[in-house]
Structure formats: C-alpha cells, structure tokens
Write a structure and sequence with these properties.
By secondary structure, the protein is an all-alpha fold. The protein is built from nine helices and no strands. It is elongated. The N terminus is likely disordered. This is TetR/AcrR family transcriptional regulator.
C-alpha cells in the first residue's frame, strides 16, 4: 500500500479501523458505539480518528457494503455460469452464500443486525430485499424444473434456506474450514439428514 493510499497515523489504515469498528458495532451495537469508543479501542484521541474516517455512519456503510457486495458478486458468478441447470444454480447459490458468510463473518453479522434506523441501514435493507428476490427466483426456477419440490411456497423455501445459512452468525467462529462448512450446509439443505442406501 502506498503512503498516499494510507491515511492517518502509522499503524492504522482505513481497513484496520473498519475491522475494529465492525467488532465494536457487533459487540456493543451500532447505536451504542461512539467515535470516542472506537478511538479508545485504537489507542487514538477522538479528534485523531477523523484522520482515518469521516464518520461513524461511513464505517457502518463500508461494513455493510463489504457483506452485500460479496453476496451480490457470488450470485452474479452463479448467474454467469451457463453450464448449470436450475437446481445446480440454486445449490451453488446456497453454497456461495455460506462461503461469503464464513469469509466475511463479522460484516455479515453486522448486516443481519441492521434495522433501518439510518440512511445506510435503509439502503442495506433495500439491497437485502433485492438479494432475497433473486434467491426466491432461483428457488422458483429449480422447482419449475423439477430439481426440488414444487409443492412448497418458493419465497418461504428461500427464507428457510437462507435463514439456516444466516443463523450461522450466532455460533460460527472464524476458525472453521470454509469448504467443509459450505459442503455440509449444502448437503444438509438439499439431501437432508436421511441416510440414503
């Protein structure tokens, strides 16, 4: 990283400040975390923190965008893969969402906690609804193609599938193997718990 790209005092760049902010927002809640709290956590004065970031909401927006951008990129990658049928596409979307969650766990955890109290949160909720719509459409496509059960409501199925994925933020720690976790969740979601001969 060049000296021009690195703003603020030595030892802290925007990414390191963002990582600490996400951890504080998750631990204390966004509303309950002040810029003073963040400055103390970083060992800076309150005024010095503004050499790194313009505002607390900017940090929230950056954190949320990290999670949403990764989710959208994962779905875009699945959509661009022309050799998958509708069922494989849905399976790949579920697997990809698990990978994103594991690789961006703190940011995804924060995303799932936003309630629409700030402009950044309202924008995030709009983007989440768009992602939910894309996933529900994949469920509809897979059901229509006979790859999954067609007798269940696609939106409810989508919410249950991705609710299972999202619930991982409550218990998953950063030390899990991404591939094993993604394979296990995908197998469970599509093949169930019943042992097949």
């Amino acid at each position: 990283m060049s000296e021009r790209a690195r703003r603020g005092r030595p030892g802290h760049d925007q990414q390191s400040v963002l990582r600490v902010a996400i951890e504080l927002f998750n631990r204390q809640g966004y509303d309950a975390t002040s810029m003073g709290d963040l400055a103390r956590e970083l060992g800076l004065t309150k005024s010095a923190i503004y050499h790194h970031v313009p505002s607390k909401e900017h940090l929230l927006e950056s954190a949320i965008d990290e999670a949403l951008d990764a989710l959208e990129a994962s779905l875009d990658e699945v959509a661009a893969t022309s050799d998958l049928d509708a069922g494989e596409r849905l399976r790949a979307a579920v697997r990809g969402s698990v990978v994103v969650l594991v690789e961006h766990l703190p940011a995804v955890t924060l995303l799932l906690r936003v309630r629409g109290n700030t402009p950044a949160e309202k924008a995030a909720l709009r983007r989440r609804r768009e992602i939910d719509d894309r996933l529900a459409e994949m469920v509809r496509g897979a059901a229509g193609a006979g790859a999954i059960r067609g007798d269940l409501d696609p939106l409810l199925t989508s919410r249950l599938l991705f609710g299972m994925v999202n619930s991982m933020t409550e218990w998953l720690r950063d030390d899990g193997d991404v591939e094993t976790i993604a394979d296990t969740v995908t197998t469970l979601a599509f093949d169930g718990l019943t042992r097949h001969a």
